[in-house]
From TrEMBL:
One of its GO terms (molecular function) is carbon-sulfur lyase activity. Keywords: Lyase, Metal-binding, Zinc. Belongs to the Gfa family. Pfam families: GFA. InterPro entries: CENP-V/GFA (IPR006913), Mss4-like_sf (IPR011057). This is CENP-V/GFA domain-containing protein. Residues 244-263 are annotated as: Disordered. Residues 5-124 form the CENP-V/GFA domain. Gene3D superfamilies: glutathione-dependent formaldehyde- activating enzyme (gfa). The lineage of its organism: Eukaryota, Fungi, Dikarya, Basidiomycota, Agaricomycotina. It comes from the Eukaryota.
Amino acid sequence: MTTYIQTKCHCGLNSFKVAFKTSELPLSTAACHCNSCRHTTGQMLVIDVPIQGVPLSSTAEGDVAASLEGLTAYKSSKDMTRYFCTKCSAYFFFHNGVHDVWAVFSGVLEKVDEVLSVSHHIWVEDTLDGGIADHYRTVNDVVLPRYAQRATSGTLPLGWKAKEFANAETHPLHCHCKAISLALTRATEIKDPKSEYWLVPGKEGAPMRFMAAHCFCSDCRLSSGSQIQSWVIVPRVNVTDASTSASVDPENAAARPKGLKQYESSPGKRREFCGTCGATVFWWREGVSHLDLSAGLFDQEAGGARAEKWLVWYDRIIHPKDAISPATLAALTEGVKAEKAEEV
């Protein structure tokens, strides 16, 4: 027996039907933290699940292979091709050319917990600091193994770090293809503590840091293909184009990084992504002096995937009522609170 699940993106340009063998649901799957997954999407992790056959037309009767003309293909390696919405950037599919297997991103599924269950983390070693695996610790009270590489490799303990990182003056960010390469500079003053709550003073002479948080809103999920969109709130003036060293101004065509594509997800709110590899880069509002950077862009070599020399992770989830997976929401809610308690 076959179960069919509908998928869609935010802009509506793409919708598909994907098939699963009913008796195998929910499928056990991994949360992947590899550098390729993080930097091609701009997300802190990728959760996907293999489908039966190929993506199917969402409107045709029966199993009719879908047209992928509304998707942009990006070949992230010799054997792996990734597909994202050309208009709104939502990631839909992987295709493994060696085994001819398709997988769907969990954020575009109309149902998640009925289809998959995250059972372990893979490629945690790539993060250099555990990444979001430190926030995603358990599912239904079962501790998730944290594999260094594939699920056949050794595991890494909670709190693991490959090395200690220095307090640098700038921090590099980039997408996978590096068409978008940015640098973040330090904020040095808080002019209005009430409105600039996202600037966090350093302790004992340490530099100021920026607030980061995990968002579960439907707009973020359907325009990224990820259940979890992790944002970092920063003043525009502190985001520079690595190729020019000039501050990024998304409202000024001359100060926009080349390679950015824009999608207006609601009036006055614009999401920017790499037109080549599909990575979410940032979103911004007209007339506001700050923007939200996608946390998966942070160069792990400079500070680990969580970039804790630069970021303070908020201990609450943003827009929890929009979560499509109660299991994922519960895991992150518990994880960020646990990490915050451990800091005390």
